[in-house]
Amino acid sequence: MAGGNSPGGSLDLAADHLRGPIQFTVDLDHLLSSDTRTLRLRTSYGKAFPVPYRNPRRGSGCHLSPIRLVVRKTALMHAHDSGNPPLPRLPLTVVGGYLGAGKTTLLNALLADPQGQRIAVLVNDFGEVDIDGRLLQASADAPTRDVLTLANGCICCSMVDGFAETLETVRGFADRIDRVIVEVSGVGDPRQVARWGRIPGFTPDGVIVLVDPLSIRDRASDRYVGETVLGQVAGADLIVISRTDIVAEALLLEIEAWLATATGATAMRSPVPTGLLLGPPLRIAGAATVNDNSHFTSTPPDHVSITRSLDAPISRASIDTWLAARPRGVVRAKGLVQVEDRPEARTVLQVCGPSGTVAVDGPWDDGDAVVVAIALPGTPRAGLVKWLGLLH
To answer: How far from 255 is each of 164, 225, 244, CA to CA, in Å?
Structure first.
């Protein structure tokens, strides 16, 4: 069991507690309405580490004392392993959409052609994802029975043991994957799931919602599921219109006009290349100039891609200005930069449709500081160059 309590929810843990899951009771002055918080744990090695824990009793801003907490074994092991350099945060992208909208088709396409990115896809059931047998490695390569390892570096995880536990498992693969994609059930709220991207070890990287142009308006007006469907669409950062190969152009234009009234998200017609859905990898060898698109072979030639190298730390105020001034056609933007008030840190900028995040992702690694933007066809190139120029 845990040692004595101390102010601020800090606990002393003996090293032998790192061998397995721990359940203990702690007095907390106040509990927020959340399933996950961060606890300061101090081991016998004398160092304190922030560790996520799960609260089995959900509060609503009420006072609960004492309360039983659960700290999983892998969380403690990751926190305790201070001898290794910190692992980068994993971008967490959420894929949602009502039943039959095309989520599984999109996930199959991403796994089949990840464009060099090592993706961990979290699904409710392996049976829903048609993984090409040629991609599957020997079962001995899989860390658990709920994880499929693919020859292209991607993994597919089943959430049969619960979402929090699966995220915990995936975080253990942070040294060999680049990002996480979570499939939400057809009646789920993708925006709510995206909040998990703010727990330690992850960073939010957008909500992608699939819509079926043949049924979306009928679903949205349905008395039983309409609120759910409209909520999914409204909460999206990127909208992917599926089944475009069997839908007339006139109907697609009607759906695009309807979507413009229902959401501020950027809408695109399927199939959408991986480079647009997820953006390019953050670390780019040999950063390009603002006139060079050669690094982004996954970006369709009719889309606009701009890269800017930065030769000095930028101000936090310029980042705020840059995020607020996003041109409407921008689908994705990503960057690794140094910020003036914290130049020793690696700061990650990410834009997905109308949403943007800024997060510190470990110490600066002496690589190139670079920002990349990818926009829809017809987006003025000069406007993108000017937009990236706001970072200074």
So the answer is: 36, 19, 11
